[in-house]
Design goal:
By secondary structure, this protein is an alpha+beta fold. It folds into 2 domains: 33 residues, no CATH class; 191 residues, no CATH class. It contains 5 helices and 15 strands. The radius of gyration is 21 Å and the shape is globular.
Amino acid sequence: MLHDRTFKADGSSSELVAGLAKILQPDENDLKHQLKPLTGLEEAKFLGKGKQIPDSIYTALLAYLHSLGQVNWCAHKQHLPHLAHELVLPPAGLSPSEIKLEGRTFSCRQSHEGNSGIQFKSPSDLSIHLTGHIDTIWQIPLQGKVQTFFVVQKHTPIPLYLLRDTPYPSMPEFATTVVDATPSGQFIIIEAEHILTHLTVLKRPQGTYGINTRSLLTICWSLNRGRRS
């Protein structure tokens, strides 16, 4: 009830349960409540509390904004002095270890591995569903509004001929598959709207399913329960 926020008005205890839930997990911590526009002074204070964004992530963020058609954004060291129509991507931002989204906590892998595994929609093609782990989270003020970006390391798929040795291709109702346990080193920028669900992740040693060439992760996205698609 706490995580789903399903409080049925079927008795006097429902108000007490709802009140307790607000104490344990207040809605104000949820990402959807962090969309209040910032004044110039508030934005300066926000950036003052932030830290430098690594060059590789900064470049990826800029490319992501351009992929959305927001081509006026430019790097802070680019085209000096900046042209009047250009928007400068700040070089710093906050990097929280976790974020609440619709009452559920999503964490960086280093902070809480269990909350970091996610299934998500590819920003370039929303019909494609991918899986991975949240590596870092960045909150950056853009044009007076704080936007949250997730840097996700995609899972490493195993070859199709090995995947056929597992039981899951013939059992789609299990919402489960197997990926390589070796980190892919492939990172992708997404936003909250792309996240579908947490994953359950089970580490499996070499030899599982008769696959002796690599360690595996068995991942399941049935926690979605049809909430998002």
